[in-house]
Amino acid sequence: MKNELKIMFPLYRIIYPLLFMIFLSIFRGIADTREIGVTLDPMLAALSAVFMVDTYLIEHKEQRWEIFALYALDKKKAMVYKRIFVQFAYLFLLAAIGYFLFFIQNPSKEGWGTEAKLYFEYLSAVSVSLLFWGSMAITGANLFQNIWCGIGISLTIWLVLNSAFGADMFGKYNVFSYVFRSYGRGTGADWIPGKIIGFVLAVLMMSLLIPQTIKRRRI
Question: Which residues pair with 32 in a beta bridge?
Answer without folding.
Answer: 108
